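Homework-ish question, so no full write-ups if that breaks the rules, but can someone show me the predicted structure for this set?
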Amino acid sequence: MPLTPAILALNLASLTQSLLLVVAAGFTIQILRHWDLSSGSERQLELERRTYLIATLIAWVFGGNLLSLLLFVYNAEQLSTQFVGAMCATGVLNANPWGWPTLFLKITLFFAGAAWLILNGVDNQAPDYPLVRPKYALLLLIAPLALAEVTMQALFFTALNPDLITSCCGSLFSPEGGGVAAEVAGLDPAVSLAALAVSGLALLATGLRYWRRGRGGRLFAQLAALAFGIALAAIVSGVALYVYEHPHHHCPFCLLKSGHDFVGYGLYVPLFAATALALGAGLIEVWRSTPSLTAIITHQGPRLAGIALLLFGLFYGFSTWLVLRSNLLLLGTN
Amino acid sequence: MISFLRRQRYLLEYSLSSLARRPGKHLGLMLVYATIVFLLASTLLFTQSLRQEAALVLAESPELIVQRLLAGRHDLIPASYLEPIGAIRGIGERYGRLWGYFYDPAVRANYSLMVPREDPPAAGEVQLGAGVARARGLGPGDYLSLRSARGEPFSFRIASLLSADTELVSSDLMLLNAEDFRRFFDFPADRFTDIVLRVRNPVEVRKVAEKISLALPDTRPILREEILRTYDAVFGWRQGLVFILLTGALLAFVIFAWDRASGLSGEERREIGILKAIGWETGDVLRMKFWEGAALSLTAFLLGYLLAYVHVFYFSAALFAPVLKGWAVLYPDFRPLPFVDGLQVATLFFFSVFPYTVATIIPIWRAAITDPDQVMR
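A: Not a homework solution, just the prediction itself:
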């Protein structure tokens, strides 16, 4: 394991986050067993107070998770100098089988956390806290994900074995190793960009309908999840080519580098935030028929969808601009 | 949205005024906090600049160095090896280098002696690195006397000193011409220390190295990228080591922060009680405390980082330089290039703000759930 501060920080952060989640899960079990809002007992009072602690812990865990996701990618980018054949984060994540699963788990945790916080926000607005049981049950499902993430990340870093020469007085010529970064396989850019446009339009249509009429929230969330996947595929197979102005450079991470004006942040930040909001809106729609929540969800759902639409709009607008401003010609002629 | 922001602003205002009311209590914590950030940031900034410096220096070095091995040790390479190497396609330029080390008992330090390829000094003259010149108290025009490999005294006139810009690598350097070098070390005439190669196409470097190790099995090719990678790893490792050593201090800080946050004074308890009695909710108290922590963290973080920046870039990291630079007698006097990096700031955040926050969550929650009647009774 390369003993760099960033790796130590990532392991420390993940470990602390999982510990906090385990603590929260412990409280959660008590809440699931003994929660009874109608009771005025000492225990119920204690449980109500604990809900504040859990919400604060979870908010911090997911806030920290977002930062550690960024640090993880950034760190993989920096480590690339230490691996033969790795030119950016892709090569480092390919260095052993744990790299990509760790990244995907971090992303999943980010979405799960955001959706949980939205659910919690809605529940706290209702006087009778109708979602206490489902939301804490959901938390019990998220906790194992965090434990998997910390284990996976530790495995990834432990198994990293840079092909080194030993300091000043010796070097072994390293034979061509297997660590050559596998180029992310791309679809046909025409197909992926068309899919991006179609999914974007469908998303905007359902989102507008939900925003204005309050109908189709779940469909909007499902489409957002689909559009998220399509958007990532389109970035890798299409948009990236236009940014690099190179028909075979597919890397989703080089976009974050200064050499490409950090355009990746302009793509990923709105895309991830919009998807998280849309998923949250879809999740709360499940409880629309609960009497004390109907009014809150009728107001909150479309509001979240509105912000999500704005962010999706930013993402699609920015992607289009990146393709249009590029000097690369892939589809037809100008 | 606007009402949300306004609410946060009022909470922040309240937190700041609450902090200002009890400056003594928070000053101690702030100092410890800033010191932790200072220690960690100094390590990061300094090592990162060393790494950059090494990369800058190596950017101009040859792509490939070929050394001869004898019984697993580095041996002098015959000049005749230049010929078979020349037959390999893709090599732009190749030449033998003469360099070595000399232990000077007078200052108890090692010098690096080298024959420059271009503009070597005239016979009997040398160019000296700043470190050697400082150690011996010499300047241009003075004479440097050393004992050669045969035990004979050798006097070199110092033609000039090497530029201070490259001191990190030239501090202990002594440049002389090939004849003087061979006579001084009693170095065989048909040998070089090693051979360096320029490869036109960077993609071919590995292939060329592979061909060399096949054609001349008693040699080992060293790639520039491998040297760079080793520097990267070594400096990263040293950073990590210092961080691990600082973990003890970090833990002490976390316990201190926890203790501070849980030891609320009677006055503070009463304050929270009054706030709740006039209508604040537990969530509001939590938010207020969050802003208090954020203000404290941000100030300590900025203060610590700023101090580290000054320490590293204006005082050449006087406190840590010996550990992080390496172990040598002739320390280069070097001024790192100032810069700020996102990865570092994020790493520092996880090593300082994150533990502080985690340590204070539970005490803050305990304070926030206080019943008004309990404390005001």
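Now go work out the reasoning yourself. Hint: Chain B touches chain A through 47 residues (CB under 8 Å).
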